[in-house]
Amino acid sequence: MYEYKFIKIEFKKLSGKPIEDYREVIKNHANQGWRFVQIFSPDFATSGIAAGSYYELIFERPIKQ
């Protein structure tokens, strides 16, 4: 069994750049035993513009029993 963690990284309003560096978020979570699974922008298709307003990072790790 696995547990999952979802991290939302929003973009700055004017520049459209991520507020946090997703690479650092991935490294920090890896140090805590999380395995990076996927990054995507859930609202990309529905935002009405050519870019989404945030990334979602998905992590998993085995549940300790």
Structure explained in plain terms:
This protein is an alpha+beta fold and 65 residues long. It has one domain (2-62). Helix content is 15%, strand content 37%. It has one helix and three strands; from the N terminus they run βαββ. A three-stranded antiparallel sheet has the order 1-3-2, with helices on one face. 5% of the residues are buried.
Break the fold down into its secondary structure elements and pairings.
Blueprint: E1 2-10, H1 22-31, E2 35-40, E3 54-62
Antiparallel strand pairs: 1-3, 2-3
Task: Output the keywords.
alpha+beta, 1 helix, three-stranded antiparallel beta sheet, YjzH-like, 65 residues, DUF4177 domain-containing protein
Helical content stands at: 10-25%
The major β-sheet equals:
3 strands, antiparallel
Mean pLDDT over all positions = 86
SSE succession: EHEE
Radius of gyration over all CA atoms, rounded: 14 Å
SSE-based structural type: alpha+beta
Number of domains: 1
Cα end-to-end separation: 9 Å
Question: Strands of the biggest beta sheet: in what spatial order?
Answer: 1-3-2
Strand content: 35-45%
Outline:
It comes from Oceanobacillus chungangensis. The chain has 65 residues and is an alpha+beta fold.
